[in-house]
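Help! Submission page says 'invalid entity' but I think these are all valid:
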Amino acid sequence: MNRSIITGQRLVAVFLLGCLLFNYPLIALFNKPGKLFEVPLLYLFIFGAWALVIGLMTLIIERRKD
Amino acid sequence: MLQGWVIASVSFTYLGVLFAIAYFGDKRSDAGRSIIANPTIFALSLAVYCTTWTFYGSVGRAASTGIGFLPIYLGPTLMAGLWWFVMLKIIRISKANRITSIADFISSRYGKSQLLGGLVTVIAVIGIIPYISLQLKAVSNSFTILLHYPEIVMPAKAGAVPLLHDSALYIAMILAAFTILFGTRHLDATERHEGMVAAIAFESVVKLLAFLAVGIYVTFGIYNGFGDIFGRAELVPKLKALMTMTDSGASYGSWWSLTFLSMLSIMFLPRQFQITVVENVNERHLARAIWLFPLYLILINIFVLPITVGGLMHFPDGSVDADTFVLTLPMAERQEVLTLFVFIGGLSAATGMVIVETIALSTMVCNDLVMPVLLRWKRLHLQEEQDLSGLLLTIRRLAIAAILLLGYIYFRAAGEAYALVGIGLISFAAVAQFAPAIFGGIYWKEGTRAGAIAGLTAGFLVWIYTLLLPSFAKSGWLSLDFISEGLFGVALLKPQQLFGLTGLDEITHSLFWSMLANIGCYVTVSLRKRPDLVEASQATLFVDVFRHTEGSARSRFWRGSAKVQDLLPLIGRFLGPDRARGAFLAYARQRGVDSAEQLEADADLVHYAETLLAGAIGGASARVMVASVVKEEPPGIDEVMNILDEASQVRAYSRQLEQKSRELEAATAELRAANAQLKELDRMKDDFMSTVTHELRTPLTSIRSFSEILLEDPKINLADRKKFLAIIVKETERLTRLINQVLDMAKIESGNAEWHTADIDLHEIIEESLAATSTLFADKRIQLVREFAENVPMVKADHDRLIQVMLNLLSNAVKFCEADRGRVIVRLSVEGSHAVRVDVEDNGAGIAEEDQHTIFEKFRQVGDTLTAKPQGTGLGLPISRRIVEHFGGRLWVTSSLGKGATFSFTLPMNMGGGKRQEERREI
C-alpha cells in the first residue's frame, strides 16, 4: 500500500512537471521562429517534453514493485 | 477506380470484421475466458477518445491555429498522471456500487437522487448529440469525396442532398443497428460489453495505423522527410506563422484553458467514463493505460503538422478543405489503396465513438430519464408485469435509435454551419460541468444534493448562454444581434463578453464563467445545510471507498425488514426471472445456504439485491424499487452520528494509537535505561560486597591466626605474646577503621550523613592534621614543607570532615613516599576570587595517567594488588572527594609516573568571612 502511494506521488510529480513544461512561461521561451534538427523549435520542444513525460510515466509504472 | 460498390463492400467487410470480433469477445466472456482482461487492450480501448475530430479535424485545426490542436491531447496525458489516485478511486467506487454511467455515479453519490441523474443525462445528451452529428458528417463527407475519385470535389452542403440520397442517413441507420446489436444483446447486471470493448480496441489500432500510414506517405513519399516539408513551409509566410503561437497572454491563456478542458473531458466524456470505468475488467489494468494511452496520443499526433503543411502547399488555392487533407492528399497522388485505408481509418474513428457514446447515453437515458418517469407514472401498471427485462432492453434500443436519429437531424439542420464545426470543444465544455460534482463527490463529504443540482444547473445554463446559443446565432438560427449587442441590447450581457470580460477566446471565456457559476453554487449551497442521512451515508461510501471496500460490512447503513419472497420477484422483473434466481442462488451458495428461499433477508441481502438492480436500472431507480418491497426503518440518531463522525473518530483513534505507541516507545527506552542503570548498580553492589568482605577478611584472618597461636601455645614467651597482641590490636583498629569508613561512605551516599557546617579557618585544619600525622612523618623521616599564603579567607565547612580529608591526603602522601628521601609540601593559597586551594604534593612513585580516575572509585588502589599488600582501605579518596564536593568544592590529582603526585582541593570562599576571623581573634 505504501509502495503504491509512492508510485502515485511520483506520477503526480510528473503531472506537475508536465503542467510546468506545457505552460507559460517555459513554452514562451521556445515560441520563436527557427529550427533545430530541421524541425520548428516550438514543435520540437512540445513533442520532446511530451515524450519525456510519457517516458517518466512508463518508468514509474513499469518499474514499480507492488 | 474506386467505385461506390467497392467502397461500400470494403466498409461492410470492415464492419463485419468488427462484429466478428465483438461476437467472439462476447462468447469468450460468457465462457469466462475474457479476451479483454488485458491492460494493453484496456489502454487501446481508451483511445476511443480520438474520433474523426482527431482523425480529420486535427489537420483542419492545425491549418488555422498551428500547434493549437495539441492541448486536446496534452491534457489527457497530464491527467493520466493523476489517474493513479483519482481514476482508481472512481473505478473502485463504481465497482462497489455497480455504477453504470456518469449520471448514475453523480446521482448515487448525492443520495441516489433521481432528479440529479436526470439533470446529468440531459446535459450529456444536449452536449454530446452534436458531437455524434459531427461523426456522421465526417463519414458522409469522406464517402462523398471518395465517390468522385480521382477528382477532388468538396461535398455539397449537407442540406442540399435529398433525404433519401443522403449517405449520412444510411450511415446513421447502419450505426444504430450495429450499436443495438453490440450494446443490448442482453441485460447485464454490470452493464459491461466485453465484445464491444474488444472491437473498440481493434478500431483504435486501425485508425492509428491509417493515420500513421498517410503521415509517413505524405512526409516521406510526397516530400523528403520533416526537414524538407518544414524547410519549404518556411518560405511561405502564411505557413511560417503556423510554426509559432501568437506571443500574447491571451494565446497562452487559451492554450492552457484548452489543456485544462481536455483534462476534464478525458475523465467525464460519457464514452470515456463508459470505457474507463464501466467496462473496466480489473482496476490493475489502469496502470499500463497511464503511459500507454498518452503514447497512443503522441503517435497519432506526430504527423498532423506535416500533413497540414503538406496539404496547404499541395492545394495552395484553398479549394480543398483542410479537414479533408488526410484523405485528399493520397487521392491527389492516386494512391487508391492508401486512400481506401484512410477512409476505413476515419470510419473506425467514427464508429468507435458513436457506438460507445450511444451505448453510454442510452444507458443514461433509460436508467435516469425514462425508467424513473415510467416507474412513477405507471407504477401500478408496471407492478403487474412479471418480466420487465424485455421492456428495459426495448427502451435501450429505442434510446439508441433516437440518439442517432437526433444526431442525424442535427446534422441535416446544421450542415456546414458553425454549430457543427466548433462542436468538439463545445461538447468538452458541456461535460466539464460534471467535474465539480464528481471531484467534490469523491473527496468532500459535505457536498450535498442541493449543492450538486445548483452547481450543475448554473454551470449548464452559463454554458448554454455563452457557447451553445452563440453557436446557434453564428449558424444563422438566431439573430446575430444577440452576440454583438447582448441580450435585450444590454451590453453587459453579451454572451461572449459577459459582464464586459474581453480578451479571452470563446471557450476560455465560457469555461471561466461556467466554472465560476458551477463551483460557486456547488460549494455555497452545499455549505448552507448539513447533508441529510442518505446523502451522508452515500458520501461516506464514496469518499472513504478504500476503507469500505477493504473488508467491512456495509449493513450498518441500513435497517429494515424484507422478505426473500418479495425481493426475488422484484429483481426477476427487471433482470428476467432466471437470471435473478441464478444470482440469488450464487449469493446463497456464497453464504453456505442451499436455496434462495432459505436466505435470511438481512441488510446485506437487501443491499445485494439493490446493487443487482442498480446494474440494470441505475442506482436511483433501484433504490425506489427496493424501497417499495422493503420496510425500511429510519436509523436511530446514534447510527446517524456514527456515520457522520466515523471518519473523524477513526482518525482520532489512529492519532491516539500513534501517540500511545510513541509514549510506549519512550517508556520502553526509559525502562531500558533504568534497567541498565540497575544492572550497573547491582554489579557495583556485588563488587562492593566482595571487596568489602575481602578487605574485612584480611585483618580478620591475621587476628584469628594470632589469637589461635596465643590460645593453643601457652608456653609462648612474653615478648612474642606482646608482639602478637600488638598486631591483633592494630588489625582490630584497621578493621574498625574500615567498618567506620564503609558506614561513613554509605551514610554520605544515602544522604544521611550529619554535617556540622561552620566557618572554618583552613590554617587551623591543616595544622591540626599535621599535628595528628606528625608521628607518621617522623617514622619515615619525611621532610615536611609548609607554603601558606597570608590572609586566606574562611570557608564554610564541617571541621571534623575537613580534618578527615586532610588526614587522608597526608597519610597517602606519606604512604607513597620513600623513607628518608621523601618530601611533602603542603600549600595553602587563594585561587581566583572565589576559592581557597589546598595542595598536598609528594615526591613518591606518582600515578599513571590512566589510573588517575580510578583512584577516586571505591576500593580502587593503584598498584599490583595481587603481589603487594594493599596499603589502605580504598575508601579514603572517594570519601574525601564526596566531602569536598558536598561543600561545593573540587578534589583532583595531577601527577605523572615517577614524578610524585599533587592532590589538590578547592573550597568556595565564605564571603565576609574575614571579619569573623578578626572577631574571633579578638576573643
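Support: the input was valid. A stray whitespace character was the problem, and the output above is from the cleaned input. Chain A touches chain B at residues 4, 7-8, 11-12, 14-15, 18-19, 22-24, 27-28, 31-33, 35, 37-43, 46-47, 50-51, 53-54, 57-58, 61-62, 64 (CB under 8 Å).
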